[in-house]
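This part of the workshop introduces the protein records we will be handling. A record pairs a protein's sequence with a compact description of its fold. As an example, a complete record with its sequence and its structure tokens follows.

_____
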Amino acid sequence: MVLRQRRQSRRVHPEIYAPQFGGHCATSLARGYLSDGKPRLFLIRKLKLYFFYSVANREAFLASERVLTSSAVKNWPGLERTLVGEEGLVVDALGERDSAAPEAEHVTADATH
């Protein structure tokens, strides 16, 4: 019962439970590129979960937290649009289809050529 309530709470309030920036490294985003964040390299600030690619990136974030957070927030919308899921669909941090994202075009190869 408790597990079900926690799972439901995560779905209702993903902004609290899901990692920021889809789990990508906050420092890399601030620098203008995407890199995977590693769940073991994390930081919680102001009830937000941030992942980092490396210990050095986490330390850099801590040294300039305000500036890097602002830059990451500014860069995220443009970089987020470049992400696609397995089916060519934009997905959110919980792995669910983003209903606000445009439909992806699927190209199939013609086996007769």
